[in-house]
């Protein structure tokens, strides 16, 4: 996949499947450079790059910034240039400056935009509240399913006494981060008691929000749907972004040859020397390291 058209076709496929990716678009080039305006690439959560944004001089930086964008959910304009070629004081706020140590002295600007799938909301039930909630969720761009088995981000059980216990149990066995039950406090207590008798732990049962939705006081079924949607929107804002790596930050490393920060995810240029793994921005830096590994390793350890 090299053409911008092919990249956009793949982007559409990923979006339709609800898969996250970052779209990188070359918006400006000051030659010499191996890319041109309009070139595009996709950065995947595993660090893979599909497309073309300038080869080894740009790709490691674009991958790094793409993974950062997926983690924080924010786009960024990245200016890639040789050391000393960018006047930082002239840059607009928010522009990321990345130094390239390639032989080329060109400057490339790349817009990196995270494309995070909208939450998938499973609404089970055919009550007026369920139908209204489904309509409203689609209006704000959420994906909606009528069954629990579709790996949802959030589940609302609106079966109104019909198989509440079975549906809620199925929801609790998913990784959904929001699970709401439309029921009175008394009915919710009965359902949770039945689930506890089935062996579900208190920790698991504590995930259930019932009555679901913000407390707006007594209201109609349609108003209940509005209250639930408001709670879901607030919840989604608290959980927006791709999220950090399990250790609390992105897996990044410093190239011991050129000093560039590179993303460890998906990196192809790595070397294990004396039991320690090193990551590189390109095969050129890796080759230089291998030619005098002890010296570079010692310098990296002292840094």
CATH superfamily annotation of the largest domain: NAD(P)-binding Rossmann-like Domain
Strand proportion: 15-25%
Distance between the termini: 39 Å
Secondary-structure element pattern, one letter each: HEEEHEEEEHEEHEHHEHEEEEHH
Look at the helices and sheets and give the structural class.
alpha/beta
Average pLDDT: 85
Radius of gyration: 25 Å
CATH topology of the largest domain: Rossmann fold
Description:
- With 303 residues, the chain is α/β, with parallel strands linked by helices.
- It folds into 3 domains: 4-115, no CATH class; 120-238, NAD(P)-binding Rossmann-like Domain (Rossmann fold, 3-Layer(aba) Sandwich); 252-302, no CATH class.
- The protein is built from 9 helices and 15 strands.
- The chain is elongated and about 70 Å long.
């Amino acid at each position: 996949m090299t053409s911008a058209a092919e990249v956009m076709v793949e982007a559409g496929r990923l979006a339709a499947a609800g898969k996250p990716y970052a779209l990188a678009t070359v918006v400006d080039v000051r030659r010499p450079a191996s890319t041109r305006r309009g070139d595009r690439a996709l950065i995947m959560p595993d660090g893979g790059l599909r497309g073309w944004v300038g080869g080894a001089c740009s790709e490691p930086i674009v991958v790094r910034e793409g993974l950062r964008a997926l983690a924080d959910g924010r786009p960024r304009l990245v200016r890639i240039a040789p050391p000393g070629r960018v006047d930082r004081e002239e840059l607009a706020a928010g522009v990321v400056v990345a130094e390239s140590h390639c032989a080329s002295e060109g400057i490339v600007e790349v817009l990196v935009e995270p494309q995070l799938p909208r939450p998938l909301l499973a609404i089970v039930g055919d009550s007026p509240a369920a139908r209204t909630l489904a309509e409203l969720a689609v209006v704000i761009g959420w994906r909606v399913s009528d069954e629990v088995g579709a790996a949802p981000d959030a589940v609302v059980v609106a079966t109104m006494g019909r198989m509440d216990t079975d549906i809620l149990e199925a929801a609790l066995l998913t990784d959904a981060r929001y699970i709401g039950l439309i029921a009175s406090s008394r009915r919710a207590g009965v359902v949770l008691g039945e689930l506890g008798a089935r062996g579900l732990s208190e920790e698991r049962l504590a995930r259930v929000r019932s009555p679901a939705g913000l407390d707006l006081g007594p209201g109609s079924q349609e108003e209940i749907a509005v209250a639930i949607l408001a709670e879901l929107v607030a919840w989604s804002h608290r959980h927006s972004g791709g999220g950090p790596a399990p250790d609390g930050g992105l897996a990044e490393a410093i190239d011991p040859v050129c000093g560039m920060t590179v993303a460890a995810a998906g990196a192809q240029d790595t070397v294990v020397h004396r039991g320690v793994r090193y990551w590189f921005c390109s095969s050129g830096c890796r080759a230089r390291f291998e030619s005098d590994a002890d010296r570079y390793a010692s310098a990296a350890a002292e840094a």
